[in-house]
Amino acid sequence: MMILKLFFNLLLNLDGTNGMLEPWLESKGLNDADQVLAYFAVSKLGEPPIDGKTDTNPEGLTAAYGKWGSAVASRLQAGGLSCKVLEKNAFQKQMLEKLIWICSFMLVGALHPGATVGVVEKEHRNEVSKLILELADAAAAEKGLVFDDAVEERLCAYARAVSHFPTAVKEFQWRNGWFYALSQKAISEGKPDPCPSHTAWLKELKVV
Fold first, then answer.
1. What is the 3-state secondary structure (H, E, C) of 79-140?
2. d(Cα 208, Cα 206) in Å, to the nearest integer?
3. Cβ burial, residue 102 (10 Å; 0-12/13-18/19+)
C-alpha cells in the first residue's frame, strides 16, 4: 500500500496522468509497474470530482493496469468514480490517447489565447482534429500498434466533458516533448517530420 501511495504521489507531482511516463519508468527498471490512467479531475478544493464519462464512453475512461489494478478500481468505484482494469496492450493504447488529447488540445488552445478546451473543440475543430490524427499516426508507428477506430471522436467527446478547462502548453518534457523528440529523430535520419503541424505550432509559440 505504501508503494501504491508513493506512486500516486509521483503521478500528482509530475501531472503524470496526462504525460508520457514510459521512458522514465524504463530508465528505473519499472517497465511493468502498475499504472492508473485517471480521467477524473477536481475543479477546486471541496468540489466533487468530475468523472471521465463521455457521450462516446458512458462507462467511463479511467483505467488501471497491473497487479493492484483491481484493488485501485474497487477503491475508485467505492468513491463513486468509474474505473476499468485493462491488460498492458489495451492500457498502453489508452495512455497514448490521453497523451494525444492533452498535447493536441493544449497546443491548439495556446494558439488561440483564452480558449478553453471546450472552445477548442467547438470553434477550432479542424485544427485539433488535424493534430490528433497526426500525433496518433506518429505514436502508432513508434509503438507498433493500431488504435481503435474513432480516436478523434473519443478525444473530442472528452473535451466536451471537461469543456471549462483552460489551455496552456506546459510540462513539455512529459507531454509534447515526446512527440517533438520523434520529429527530431526522424529529421536527423533524413526522414520527413512525422508531426509537421505539431513542430510548426510549437515553434510559432516559441516553445522550441
1. CCCCCEECCHHHHHHHHHHHHHHHHHHHHHHHHCCCCEHHHHHHHCHHHHHHHHHHHHHHHH
2. 5
3. buried
3-state helix, strand and coil shares in percent for the chain, rounded to the nearest 5: 55, 5, 40
Q: What is d(CA 42, CA 40) in angstroms, rounded to the nearest whole number?
A: 7
- Tell which residue, 92, 99, 62, has the closest CA to residue 174: 99
Q: Is the dihedral of CA 21, 22, 24, 25 positive or negative?
A: positive
Residue length, the chain? Answer: 208
Model pTM score: 0.87
| Whether the Cβ atoms of residue 49 and residue 42 lie closer than 8 Å to each other | yes
Summarised one tens digit per residue, pLDDT across range 89-132 is 999 999 999 999 999 999 999 999 999 999 999 999 999 999 99
Question: DSSP label at 4?
Answer: H
